[in-house]
Amino acid sequence: MSQADALDYLLSADYTWTERAFELLGRRELTVTPYEGGGAPCFVVSGRCPRCDHHLVDRQVTTALTGLSGPSRGGDGERPAFVVLDVTCSCGSEHGNAPAGAIGCGASFRIAMDAE
Ligand SMILES: [Zn+2]
Ligand SMILES: [Zn+2]
Known about the structure:
By secondary structure, this protein is mostly beta strands. It has one helix at residues 15-26; strands at 30-37, 40-48, 55-61, 65-66, 82-88, 108-114. Bound molecules: zinc ion (2 copies). The site of one zinc ion (ZN) has 9 residues, from loops.
């Protein structure tokens, strides 16, 4: 009955999780859904955590818009080239050694995608 195989909490932003998240996105086991939240573009990241495999839901306001398309600055109508979402696992499941108040396994990963 107990989840003997549940991973211990580990604060980790290893690139492995970003790579796995990318694979999960490709298999649609992890999804990113945009929505409008008070005028700012927001995203809901939903699906399997790349580390602990538990279901997580993470709501994000895009604060990390990164223009990577060259030195052109200050033009009107300029759009960010990429949306970068830094997600921290918030699966809500118990993980061993988790600090008080922790709601996930401690893994952080990054999702980068083209801005629409
Ligand atoms: Zn996790
Ligand atoms: Zn978990």
